[in-house]
């Protein structure tokens, strides 16, 4: 691994086939291309050895290290981290002296520990967890978790466009009933639930006795979302429950549960009359903010030489 204190250049071997391929594609040899590029003086090719100046090598890591530093700064600002006195580095990239140097320079008031065989620490942790999942007894919610429900319509707070009718009055659809909040510490096996009641007495409601229920388990990047359609909200999993014996009874009582199950969540719907259950499993951490447009930082097709 390249060391930040090294002043000499980094030398790597260039396969002859790659040099020939470059010549065929660019109609120019590598030395000429380097000499006419912004890397002239920092990159040299001698026979099959490519030498890269130490100052240039450091820039290979700068964006990634900057993002790591920014993330750590953000984490340490949280009230949960007010008493943090040390940072332990783990994983293969932690072997890079460039990263170690940047972490120690940025967080001089904290002790920085780098364990032996740092590149194997993640693998060892996974093996230990695989043999004994209870070694991780609690987690902190990175998102807010809840259920998409209908609430009694309140004209002072609810959007009239979301209003619909049931036997016992007006309701507002697509409201977010929070079960676990963002930054909340949760324990393995911990369960929270809500109760739901529906009736089919009126003529208008009778036609819906044949419709299945869809219970949506939601996640949000906000602490207290109001509607399930708010920015940062998305469906994380759902349960579709079909009526027993073709149609629902005139009164339906259900319990919707969400259980912390290690690296997973378990959502369950219980029919309180028949006590039948239906469950679904999904990941504790959803992929809610994927950026499909982001290109690789070192994509050779975007390398300007």
Automatic annotation (TrEMBL):
Q: By its UniProt entry, which InterPro entries does this protein fall under?
A: ATPase_NBD
Which PANTHER family is this protein grouped with? ALPHA KINASE/ELONGATION FACTOR 2 KINASE, HEAT SHOCK 70 KDA PROTEIN 12A
Q: What is this protein called?
A: Uncharacterized protein
> Native species of this protein?
Mytilus edulis
């Amino acid at each position: 691994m390249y060391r930040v204190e090294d002043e000499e250049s980094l030398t790597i071997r260039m396969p002859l086939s790659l040099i020939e391929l470059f010549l065929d594609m660019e109609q120019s040899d590598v030395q000429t291309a380097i000499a006419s590029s912004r890397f002239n003086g920092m990159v040299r090719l001698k026979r099959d050895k490519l030498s890269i100046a130490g100052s240039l090598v450091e820039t290979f890591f700068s964006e990634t290290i900057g993002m790591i530093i920014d993330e750590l700064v953000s984490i340490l600002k949280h009230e949960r981290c007010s008493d943090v006195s040390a940072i332990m580095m783990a994983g293969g990239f932690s072997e890079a002296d460039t990263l170690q140097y940047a972490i120690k320079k940025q967080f001089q008031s904290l002790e920085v520990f780098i364990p032996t065989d740092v590149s194997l620490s993640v693998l060892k942790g996974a093996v230990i967890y695989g043999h004994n999942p209870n070694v991780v007894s609690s987690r902190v919610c990175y998102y807010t978790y809840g259920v998409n429900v209908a609430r009694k319509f309140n004209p002072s707070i609810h959007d009239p466009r979301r209003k619909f009718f049931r036997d016992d009055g007006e309701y507002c659809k697509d409201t977010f009933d929070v079960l676990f909040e963002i930054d909340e510490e949760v324990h393995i096996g911990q369960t929270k639930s809500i109760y739901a009641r529906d009736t089919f007495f009126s003529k208008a409601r009778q036609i819906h006795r044949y419709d299945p229920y869809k219970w949506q388990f939601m996640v949000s990047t906000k602490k207290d979302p109001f509607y399930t359609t708010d920015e940062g909200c998305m469906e994380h999993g759902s349960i579709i429950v079909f009526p027993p014996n073709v149609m629902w009874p005139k009164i339906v009582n259900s319990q919707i549960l969400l259980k912390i199950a290690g690296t997973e969540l378990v959502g369950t719907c219980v029919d309180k009359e028949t006590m039948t259950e239906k469950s679904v499993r999904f990941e504790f951490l959803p992929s809610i903010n994927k950026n499909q447009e982001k290109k690789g930082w070192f994509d050779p097709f975007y390398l300007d030489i």
